Amino acid sequence: MLNQQTLREAASYSGVGLHSGSRVEMTLHPAPADTGIRFRRTDLDGQPEIEALVEHVGDTQRSTTLAKGNIRIHTVEHVLSALAGMGVDNATIELNANEPPIGDGSAREFARLIRSAGIQPQPQPREAFRVASPFEVQAGETAISVFPHDRLKLTCVSSDRGGRFTQVYSLEVTPDSWERELAHARTFCFYEEIEHLIKNGLIRGGSLENAVVIREDAVLTNEPLRYPEEFVRHKMLDLVGDLSLLGCPLQAHVMAIRPGHAANCELVRQLSSLRRKPMLTAQTFVPPPAPRAAPAESIKAGSVLQEGIELHAAQLLKVVPHRFPFLMIDRVKRIEGNRITAIKSVSINEPYFEGHFPRLPIMPGVLQLEAIAQTAGILLLRQAENMGKYAYFMSAESVKWRKPVVPGDTLVIEVELTRIRGKIGKAKGVCRVENDIVSEAEVTFMLGEG
User: Fold this and answer.
1) Catalytic: which of 29, 56, 261, 322?
2) What is the per-residue pLDDT for 294?
3) What local confidence, expressed as pLDDT, does residue 383 receive?
4) Measuring CA to CA, which residue among 165, 36, 41 is closest to residue 99?
5) Is-catalytic flag, 356?
6) pLDDT at residue number 299
7) Any idea where the domains of the chain sit in the sequence?
8) In the CATH scheme, what is the code of domain 296-448?
9) Which CATH architecture has domain 129-281?
10) Taking residues 179-193, what's their average pLDDT?
11) What is the SS3 string spanning the chain?
12) How confident is the model at residue 8 (pLDDT cuts 50, 70, 90)?
């Protein structure tokens, strides 16, 4: 576990705010361990402060605004992205106006400011939040899926409503990669949005000096694009800033389609809720406390997990720890060496159809992924020395959802164990409905004591 970090000394930068158009001076100050990131308004009586946490998000129209009482601080995402991206855990951001300077529309100036201040390690350990099970967030035109991962990885797709300038980019976020691959990406907007933004009192400080404008198929900018995928990279820069509102580093693979501040902050709210309930979310494969169908000690691997045998419901419950509503397989059809085939009959009575979606019931993609992971876990649990243990989901890669799964479908889950080393296993899984592949993924999991 790494230690927390702060700034070595204070550093200042001045400019104009993108939306307010006001002149502003910003100073970054070191802060004690466990302080987190907070903003201080030096232009107001008492110099009030707002902690950079998702519970203080007051508005997400075109930027992320923090609010506490009558205090507002707009467009915080770029400076927060710089601090999080470069590994600064504790700092105070002083402002003499209600918005940080926009600079050139990227986070490049903030990165330079942090470099000039220097980064100072602190003795207290840094505690990251590691996502234990997949979930997804949908808000309007945005869809975000989150998967377990041992670091922060972002995969992002951006485009306008007509699909123009569709871009895709993926990155493992480290201080070096953030500064090299994201920090220089500038904010952008579509020409047809400008009138609406101005009427709503926004982008008063906007110009081609600090934003890229897209008009039909033309890109209006005062310099060439800095990256081939500058637009999606800026979306990822914003996402890093919004994710920092969790209040600690995040370890997860976040896959976002057309992300925006509203959906980003909703994602962080859900992450924050999970973080407050570690006993419920730390283990994907651990069921709610309940008596098992049979004591683990009484189960003999050879009696239920012989080569080529089927496992029906009663036998399956003696092997896996899952129970309603999180058991995603009904029976094991076949086990042959490192391959296994399981069946899930998708009924209209599945509890998740009540909310996903009432008028168009579709099995969530992350639950298909969970079915793959549960099926893969059985291949490890079949060994006598592993009976009674749990298969903990660690990560998912190469995840693809190809077709919707609806009530009445029979999901056939085919999994091959591709590698096992000690307590760690890797597997490749495919879900089919009839002869069509509906989803696939590569999963990693670890055996642990129950």
Assistant:
1) 261
2) 36
3) 57
4) 41
5) yes
6) 39
7) 3-123, 129-281, 296-448
8) 3.10.129.10
9) 2-Layer Sandwich (3.30)
10) 84
11) CCEEEEECCCEEEEEECCCCCCEEEEEEEECCCCCCEEEEECCCCCCCEEECCHHHEEECCCCCEEEECCEEECCCHHHHHHHHHCCCCEEEEEECCCCCCCCCCCCHHHHHHHHHHCEEEEEEECCCEECCCCEEEEECCEEEEEEECCCEEEEEEECCCCCCCCEEEEEECCHHHHHHHCCCCCCEEEHHHHHHHHHCCCCCCCCCCCCEEEECCEEECCCCCCCCCHHHHHHHHHHHHHHHHHCCCEEEEEEEECCCHHHHHHHHHHHHHHHCCHHHHCCCCCCCCCCCCCCHHHCCHHHHCCCCCCECHHHHHHHCCCCCCCCCCCEEEEEECCEEEEEEECCCCCHHHHCCCCCCCCCCHHHHHHHHHHHHHHHHHCCHHHCCCEEEEEEEEEEEECCCCCCCCEEEEEEEEEEEECCEEEEEEEEEECCEEEEEEEEEEEEECC
12) very high
171 or 196, greater pLDDT: 171
Is 56 noted as a catalytic residue in this protein? Answer: no
User: How confident is the model over 223-264, as pLDDT tens digits?
Assistant: 888 999 999 999 999 999 999 999 999 999 999 999 999 999
Contact 12, 133 (CB under 8 A): no
Tell me the mean pLDDT in the region 131-160: 91
Q: Per this entry, what is the length of the chain?
A: 450
pLDDT above 90: residue 5: yes
Please tell me if the domain spanning 129-281 has the same topology as the one spanning 296-448. no
The whole-angstrom separation of Cα 226 and Cα 224 is: 6
Provide the percentage of residues in the chain whose pLDDT is more than 90: 55
The dotted CATH code for 3-123 is 3.30.230.20
pTM, to two decimals? 0.61
